[in-house]
Design a protein that fits this description.
One of its GO terms (cellular component) is plasma membrane. With 694 residues, the protein is an alpha/beta fold. It is built from 25 helices and 14 strands.
């Protein structure tokens, strides 16, 4: 036995190693089958091989979890169709020349005819019609529609892969694999659309061959072999039906294989999925339906004249399957309850045992009330939070931590909290009956509206929630009112923009360098030589903190390679990178190619410049409290006025004080970008909106 197994293994390896040679000889052999007459023994062997291959393909198609696992099927379909046609030509030649086509053809003919030629012909015609009109036509149509829909869906799937890659949900290797799978899927269904034309043509050719065998054979039997018309028709009918069956049955199986492959709905998350398991799981997913079907079958058994025992047997079978499924589900449910009780027991260890395991804080956490789980309002909120996160990742080029969702009991049913490192930074309500406004208390008192809820945004600005019925009145007063989703999106976006840069650490920076090593290896080598990972991480954090996208990583790397050998201060290197990215920065903070700028007088710039104090941790303005307060009040006032006018203001300062102006305002309630004159390109116009004079 071991020797036989070893021999089979060696034969299999030998075949795999010379598969291309075997395939070439097979194609040549098929062509010679159409030309040269073959002995009956060889024809019997080839017919058996054809039937074996057909059954094998059907079984394989049932076990493949995805059509991509059999991406060579269109080529296999072409080979099997050509082989079957060559075999039909060989059997037709033998039937017409010798009135004999081997034992298999004769056995099939006698078995189907069964002593009654008319019945045999009818059965054969039914099989042929089913093969041509049902299986072949259906598979052809499905292949055509699948190819069209797959091609139409390709751009969307490609964009989805790119989006997941930019969002950090996929690695570069995973994204490449998905792109390759997508390309293979498109090629497969496109090829299947064309390959099904071969199947249709094969079915038509089979019908023509049957007619030729029947009419031509009967004529030859009478004219050349001296048979009577009845004897000739009897002989050639058996041979024709047998030949047709040995061709149509494999053709039917191949068409069935094609249909199963192109109609398969795949599950990417289950590598072990197959057709049989999927069908069984879905048929038994609703046990009540089985119970009802069993009762209906029992009702049929009570009808007079019906086969009572047969219907009772089916009734018991379906009822038993349904009842067993219900019991299984209840048992699993009890197991789930036991698991929940076990969880409670583990939590009781808080009071009885010393916990020694380490648990990290969750970077981004959305807290909801347990009663709001799976509600429409909470689901919409979760979607908008994830969408906001992904937009930040796509637009600014750095990866944010995944958002964790937790349900607790100590919140109001319509309340949510967004936490950073498990510390709440945003609180809000989920209600379509309320709207959120941002006004000062003195203005709100003049509106004669009752506040339903008060909170602050991520910058500490007070927010007031009022009834949605006041929206029109607020709009007339030029007060913007946001629904709960818009308010959540604005507030949580502020959180991402403020806290996101801290997550550009050594690990994330190393990933960027890894990307650069693949795309621009020499540049990556120089960058690693002149800048440490920790310094590069700090520079990227500084850029992201001021709202500068790091997606132009090549420009950042080239600038650092150019200047980092002579300059080692991260702040100065960041300013040099900003100058290299000035087109991007101006585009980001401009409106209609215009920068609405808040400027300083030369005297004010000199005063700020002279107040700079340097420490080991960087520089800062050493201004007296009154001057600082006056300056910040001016910034806040100008921003509020500009936003009401629909403008987007910036602060424009000299290059040597720009960084310190940003350090002064970065933790304030308002948010103003700070640019230097060196970062403004000639393509953008500067429109002064106010000049600060201290």
């Amino acid at each position: 036995m071991n020797k036989m197994t070893s021999a089979l293994t060696k034969t299999s390896l030998s075949i795999n190693g010379h598969a291309e040679i075997i395939a070439a000889f097979a194609v040549v052999g098929i062509v010679f089958m159409m030309i040269l007459p073959l002995p009956n023994t060889v024809i019997d062997g080839l017919i058996a091989l054809n039937i074996c291959l057909s059954f094998l393909l059907v079984m394989l198609s049932m076990y493949f979890p995805s059509p991509l696992y059999f991406s060579t099927f269109p080529a296999v379909l072409l080979f099997t169709t050509l082989f079957r046609l060559a075999l039909s030509i060989s059997t037709t030649r033998m039937i017409l020349l010798e009135a004999d086509a081997g034992n298999i053809v004769t056995a099939f003919g006698n078995f189907v005819v069964g002593g009654n030629l008319a019945v045999g012909v009818v059965i054969f015609l039914i099989l042929t019609i089913v093969q041509f009109l049902v299986i072949t036509k259906g598979s052809e149509r499905v292949a055509e529609v699948s190819a069209r829909f797959t091609l139409d869906a390709m751009p969307g799937k490609q964009m989805s892969i790119d989006s997941d890659l930019r969002a950090g949900l996929l690695s570069a290797v995973e994204a490449k694999k998905k792109r390759n799978d997508l390309a293979k899927t498109n090629q497969l269904f496109g090829a299947m659309d064309g390959a099904m034309k071969f199947v249709k043509g094969d079915a038509i050719a089979g019908i023509v061959i049957v007619l030729v065998n029947l009419i031509g054979g009967a004529s030859i039997g009478v004219s050349q072999h001296g048979l009577s018309p009845g004897e000739s028709m009897q002989l050639y009918s058996i041979l024709t039906i047998g030949d047709g069956l040995v061709a149509q049955i494999p053709a039917l199986l191949i068409s069935l294989t094609a249909g199963m492959i192109i109609t398969r709905v795949t599950n990417e998350d289950d590598e072990d999925a197959n057709v049989g398991r999927d069908i069984a799981a879905q048929l038994t997913s609703q046990p009540k339906a089985w119970v009802i079907a069993g009762l209906v079958m029992f009702g049929f058994s009570m009808v007079p004249g019906m086969p009572t025992k047969t219907f009772i047997a089916f009734s018991l079978a379906t009822f038993s399957i349904g009842f067993y499924s219900i019991l299984t589900r209840r048992r699993n449910s009890r197991t789930g309850i036991s698991a929940e009780q076990e969880t409670v027991a583990r939590e009781s260890k808080l009071y009885s045992e010393d916990i020694r395991s380490f648990s990290m804080t969750r970077d981004y956490l959305l807290l909801l009330n347990s009663k709001s789980k799976d509600s429409q309002l909470s689901n919409e909120l979760i979607k908008i939070v994830r969408k906001t996160r992904n937009e930040i990742v796509i637009n600014y080029g750095f990866t944010l931590p995944n958002i964790m969702i937790d349900y607790v009991d100590d919140l109001d049913p319509d309340e949510y909290r967004f936490c950073v490192s498990e510390i709440p930074v945003v609180k809000g309500l989920m209600s379509e009956e309320l709207i959120c406004i941002q006004v000062k208390d003195d203005l709100f008192e003049t509106l004669d509206i009752q506040a339903r809820y008060r909170n602050v945004d991520a910058n500490g600005v007070p927010l007031i929630w009022v009834d949605a019925k006041y929206r029109e009145m607020l709009t007339d007063r030029s007060i913007y009112a946001a629904d709960y989703l818009t308010a959540a999106q604005i507030n949580i976006r502020q959180v991402f923009q403020k806290t996101g840069p801290r997550f550009i650490g050594v690990q994330e920076t190393q990933k960027l360098i890894g990307w650069l090593q693949k795309e621009l290896p020499e540049l990556a080598k120089e960058l690693e030589r002149v800048v440490s990972i920790s310094m590069l991480s700090e520079i990227l954090q500084r850029l992201a903190a001021e709202g500068v996208s790091i997606r132009c990583f090549r420009v950042i790397a080239e600038t650092l390679v150019e200047h980092a050998q002579a300059e080692r201060d991260p702040g100065t290197l960041t300013d040099l990178v900003r100058i290299a990215l000035k087109n991007q920065i101006c585009h980001e903070f401009s409106k209609n190619e215009t920068l609405n700028a808040l400027l300083f007088t030369p005297q004010t710039e000199d005063m700020l410049r002279n107040s700079i104090r340097q420490t080991t941790r960087g520089g800062f303005f050493a201004l007296d409290p009154d001057t600082t307060k006056s300056l910040l009040n001016d910034f806040e006032r100008i921003q509020e006025a500009s936003l009401k006018e629909g403008d987007r203001p910036i602060i424009l300062a000299a290059a040597d004080i720009r960084r310190y102006v940003w350090e002064l305002i970065k933790d304030e309630k308002f948010s103003l970008p700070v640019l230097s004159y060196s970062e403004v390109t000639t393509s953008f116009r500067v429109k002064p909106i106010e000049i600060i004079n201290l």
